[in-house]
Every structure is written in structure tokens, then in C-alpha cells.
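REQUEST ID: PR-0412
SUBMITTED BY: lab tech R.K.
PRIORITY: routine
TASK: structure prediction, single protein chain
INPUT:
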Amino acid sequence: MLKASISFFVGRSKSLIPILFLAIFSNAQADDSLSETAKELANDSKRATENAVRVTKDKTCEMVKGKMECAIQKVKHGIQKAAAEAEDIMD
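STATUS: complete
OUTPUT:
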């Protein structure tokens, strides 16, 4: 279809060629930004889910085993959260 459109415009007027290429290029950039936005949203939701799971595990552990036995796990989850936040900043 793109090839047919180009040949149609070339046959009609040579002045439309730059406009056609500009339209194609603009559309390609819009697709890239849309895919990047979707990827960023997916990463954000993944990080939020992981953080919610960590918080739930920490609270459950404290209720079942007590605060002292879960302190190491809580520190580990804090480090993982900080790493995820740093990765989010890099994106």
C-alpha cells in the first residue's frame, strides 16, 4: 500500500514527495514514542507490583514470626526497593 501511495504521488506531482516523506517520518516517530511510553508504563506497574509483594511479605512475616526474625528480610527488601527506584530514574 505504501508503494502504491508513493507511485501515485510521484505520478501526480513532484512537489508532494517531500510532504509524503515528512508524513511517513513523523508517523514512525509517533509509533516509537508510543511503544516507549507503553514499555515505561509496563515497567512502572511491574515495579509497583514487586514493591507491594515485598511490603505484604514483610507484614506477614512480622505477624507470624515476629519483628526480630524478619529484620534481615526487611533490610533485603529495602535494598531491592532502592535498586528498583534507581533503575526507574535511569529509564
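NOTES: The radius of gyration is 26 Å.
REVIEWED BY: pending
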